[in-house]
């Protein structure tokens, strides 16, 4: 059963349309790849699904709730608890160490400092970057930064992880290592993943792929009605 849905989502930037009525269902526990050429609306769709942007028209529903109608504060709380977001360039806070960056979502949610740091260190260890726990982002490699960003996105154990071109700034080998870890951890926790990418080799990690072209879902590919692994829809 779909627990994250877009219905007729429209979004424009000024007079430039980005999404032209996208309807999409995402099933719980699914890893979904959203693909398509640059400028087709992939990131805009992800941002609408994650509550970062409000659609100009249409609906975004999560667990039966119209999150597109929620206030910015309510949508921000959702992204600190039930949703995790991983961006292409990590967007770590430069002034904080790796452990402080990873602990930040927990601290914002009211977790005590000691407990938050312990959880951060655990996640850095799980992602193989415990050695940079007290290092600022500027002293890390690109792969280390993105692993730290993934740890930060997962530290709250979100039900949905939104990943926007998460390997776009990495070399091929490092990118595949990060994706392998992302998929492994998502499967372990049954985290739903919405993964935006323009690379077929990255999309191949997903259970299902949908393609956007000029802001419209390509119905000729694996779209809304494609069966999920195990026979689910």
Structure report:
The protein is α/β, with parallel strands linked by helices. It has a domain at 29-39 and 73-218: Rossmann fold, CATH 3.40.50.300. It has helices spanning 42-49, 72-81, 98-108, 113-126, 142-154, 172-189, 200-203; strands spanning 2-13, 16-27, 31-35, 57-62, 65-66, 83-86, 160-164, 192-196, 208-213, 216-217. The strands form two sheets. The protein has a six-stranded mixed sheet, with helices on both faces. The chain has a four-stranded antiparallel sheet with strand order 2-1-4-5, with helices on one face. The longest helix has 18 residues, at 172-189. Mean pLDDT is 88; it is low at 221-233. One of its GO terms (molecular function) is ATP hydrolysis activity. This is Putative ABC transport system ATP-binding protein. It holds the Pfam family ABC_tran.
Short description:
InterPro entries: AAA+_ATPase (IPR003593), ABC_transporter-like_ATP-bd (IPR003439), ABC_transpr_LolD-like (IPR015854), MacB-like_ATP-bd (IPR017911), P-loop_NTPase (IPR027417). Keywords: ATP-binding, Nucleotide-binding, Transport. The protein is α/β, with parallel strands linked by helices and 233 residues long.
């Amino acid at each position: 059963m779909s627990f994250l849905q877009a219905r007729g989502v429209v979004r424009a930037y000024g007079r430039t349309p980005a999404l032209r009525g996208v309807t999409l269902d995402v099933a719980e526990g699914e890893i979904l790849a959203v693909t398509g050429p640059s400028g087709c609306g992939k990131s805009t769709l992800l941002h609408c699904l994650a509550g970062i942007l409000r659609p100009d028209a249409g609906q975004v529903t999560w667990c039966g709730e119209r999150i597109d109608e929620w206030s910015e504060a309510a949508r921000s709380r959702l992204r600190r608890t039930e949703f995790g977001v991983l961006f292409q360039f990590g967007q770590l806070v430069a002034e904080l160490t790796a452990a402080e960056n990873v602990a930040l979502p927990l601290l914002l949610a009211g977790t005590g400092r000691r407990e938050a740091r312990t959880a951060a260190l655990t996640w850095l260890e799980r992602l193989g970057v415990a050695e940079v726990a007290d290092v600022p982002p500027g002293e890390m490699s690109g792969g280390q930064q993105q692993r730290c960003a993934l740890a930060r996105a997962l530290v709250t154990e979100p039900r949905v992880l939104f990943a926007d071109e998460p390997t776009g700034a990495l070399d091929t080998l490092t990118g595949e290592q990060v994706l392998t870890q992302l998929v492994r951890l998502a499967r372990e926790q049954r985290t739903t993943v919405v993964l935006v990418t323009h690379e077929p080799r990255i999309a191949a990690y997903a259970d299902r792929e949908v393609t956007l072209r000029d802001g419209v879902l390509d119905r000729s590919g694996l779209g809304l009605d494609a069966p999920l692994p195990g026979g689910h829809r």
